Amino acid sequence: MRQYLKATYGVLSLLAVLFSACAPYPGSAKQATPSATRSSHIATPLAAIVSTATPRSQIAPAHYDAHVLLQGVGRPDDLVLDAQNRLLFSDEINGTLNRINADGSVTTILHDPAGPEGPVALPDGTIIFSEQDTNRILSLAPGSTSPTLLRTLPGIPSKASCKEGVDSITLDPTTNTIIVPDSPTGTVYRMSLDGKIFTPIAHGMVRPTGAGIDDKGTIYIPDECGHAIWQISTTGTTTHIGGFGMPDDVVPDGFGNLLVIDLAPAIHALIRFNLQTSHRETLASKGLIEPQGLFIDQQQNIFVADDYANIIMKYTPA
Question: Number of structural domains, the chain?
Answer without folding.
Answer: 1
